[in-house]
Amino acid sequence: MTDETRVLYNGQCPVCSTEIAHYSKTARANDLPIRFDDLHSDALDYYGLDADTAARRLHVWHQGQLFVGVDAFIVLWRQLPRFRLLARVVALPGVRHVAAVIYDHILAPALYKRHLRRLRRTARNDQLV
What we know:
Blueprint: E1 5-9, H1 14-29, E2 34-38, H2 44-47, H3 51-56, E3 59-62, E4 65-68, H4 70-79, H5 84-91, H6 93-128
Parallel strand pairs: 1-2
Antiparallel strand pairs: 1-3, 3-4
């Protein structure tokens, strides 16, 4: 088992890419063993996910376990110096529940719908060429 944490994210999502770029910069600056994998690469096999499932939520592989959604953020934030307090707060039972409801029912679905629109737009543009 490796100490490396792996983060699977949607590199075509502007919101996701911006957020992950910030986390990646922090991880590099602190020499942390965190790898960031774009779901549009060959990394999907490592996670055992298909692209559609991966695009729906953030996924983090840590210590032999796959974490999804808010739990994935908590695992990631616990490793990043400026995010550790946020991880502790969000991990509190009541806060975690509210955060999961907001992420699972509002934020993640909205980002996923935008992702599907981008895919449809790309497919239409490819047909026009």
